[in-house]
Design brief:
The complex is a heterodimer of chains A (about 130) and B (about 110).
Chain A: H1 24-54, H2 63-95, H3 104-129
Chain B: H1 3-43, H2 52-76, H3 87-109
The chains are: A mainly alpha (about 130), B mainly alpha (about 110).
């Protein structure tokens, strides 16, 4: 089966243009990608909980809560995105379509960068105010 | 057995192994969150209600581990079953993660 290694739907694609069971490698790769998204979301949740628990209250009142809620919102978006991505990829693979393009990791990087910047700003503020 | 078949067989074994390990790792991620949430609530003991997110996380960790176990048994079969798409499992874990994050956040806010 030299051709089926290239198309996501495998060799059965030649027989019908409708939905068909994808190659097992693509099914499992999609599954692992989904799980990686969920683990990323769980890591963000752990960060949010640890922040609230381990970090002392900052100079700006409510700043810690803001960062914690920001991380939790990122976690929800990441988890939801993982679920959505899995479904889209599964659908595309069954129809033999190309995988949908997505700016998905970009928003996570921007969000985490923002959280980092706010944290840095708070640290500098604390250093300046003594 | 030709060399190509042998290679295909070992490729599918390794693919299945990576997939099972991904499930196990996810189970540990839930477990870690459960422990963290339990530790967090041990400081201010105010009844059992604040422990709900922690209990949920630990229960989902167990569930994920059970899925990992069943998945290993499914993916071990040779030849592989034609339908191996884990639709139900993916939805259960996806919804559980969302629910856990929402509940832990709400518990943190109030």
């Amino acid at each position: 089966m030299p051709d089926s290694t290239i198309t996501p739907t495998g060799e059965r694609r030649a027989f019908s243009a409708e939905e068909s069971e994808p190659d097992y490698r693509f099914t499992m790769a999609n599954e692992r990608t989904f799980l990686a998204w969920q683990r990323t979301a769980l890591g963000l949740l752990a960060a949010a909980v640890a922040l609230e628990q381990l970090v002392p209250e900052m100079t700006v009142p409510g700043a810690r809560r803001l960062l914690g809620v920001g991380l939790a919102v990122l976690a929800i978006l990441t988890s939801g995105m993982g679920l959505l991505r899995w479904q889209q990829a599964d659908h595309a693979m069954r129809r033999g379509d190309p995988l949908p393009r997505h700016p998905s990791p970009a928003y996570l990087a921007v969000g985490l960068g923002l959280v980092g910047l706010i944290a840095l700003g708070l640290v500098i503020l604390k250093a300046v105010s003594g | 057995m030709t060399q190509a078949t042998a290679r295909n067989l070992s490729t599918s074994t390794l693919t299945a192994e990576r997939t099972t390990l991904a499930w196990t790792r996810t189970s540990f991620a839930f477990l870690a969150n459960g422990v963290l949430l339990t530790i967090k609530e041990m400081h201010g003991a105010k009844g059992l209600t604040p422990l709900i997110p922690a209990v949920l996380a630990l229960a989902v960790a167990l569930g994920t581990y059970a899925i990992a176990f069943k998945r290993q048994q499914t993916l071990q079969q040779r030849p592989l079953p034609t339908r191996i798409t884990p639709r139900r499992q993916v939805f259960i874990i996806g919804i559980a993660t969302l629910l856990l994050i929402v509940m832990a956040t709400l518990a943190q806010l109030f």
